[in-house]
Here is the input.
Amino acid sequence: ITDASGQLQYIPFPTCNETGRPLELFFGVEKEINCTLDFISDPFFHLLEFYVHNDAPLTCRIPTRPLPISPSDTESTYSIDESSKQGALGTQSTAYTPLVIALTGTLQLSHLHIAHHLNVLLHASPRSLSPGTIDAATAYSTSPTTQTTKLVIGDALPLVFSVRWYPSPRLPSGWTGVGGHIYLSTVIYCMLSAGAATAASFAWFRGVELPRRLRSRGLGVEGGRGGAGYGGYGIGGGYGIGGGKRD
Here is the structure.
């Protein structure tokens, strides 16, 4: 949206049915935000077609820090403060941080399919350098083939924003092969599992394996003694010398 001079213009985000206000983000607050756009007009529908087809970006902006209240804030004319560039648009301004929303979906002849679930990632500047300041922001649709809303002119468009904040410009490492973040609960679970497995193995050895080995060793000793003796042939005592009278 541009003015007569061709300058990019920003208008408030469409009103959400849930709050009766445009979409709002609170610094450092992570949550799921439901924002249902009640009525998609014909011009807005064609704008969505541009966004989905990537003919034009859905470019928004958010204040980098709380904006000062001054008469110039309410002026509708396009002006730039050369010292602070607070009146500039897009990336020229230090008072605002660009937020480009990558809206995805599928174009059809008579309707659209909009991927209505979006992740919103915001990076804050380190507190030691500039507390309470936004460094960068972006948003994008997820699951464009499974979580979509069929949309025609006049329909409502339910949007879900998953807002996540990061305390520095760098993203944390969240994917290590097939794993993820390692938490204390994960370590404790592994330790308890190892302890339970050790206890079960010890009980099985004492209750099953050790008695079996002892019985096996006892049978072997008895058999050895039998073979080392007289082979089961005892010495009979029937060969006595008779003491009767002889003729």
User: Anything to note?
Assistant: The chain has two domains: 32-171, 182-223.
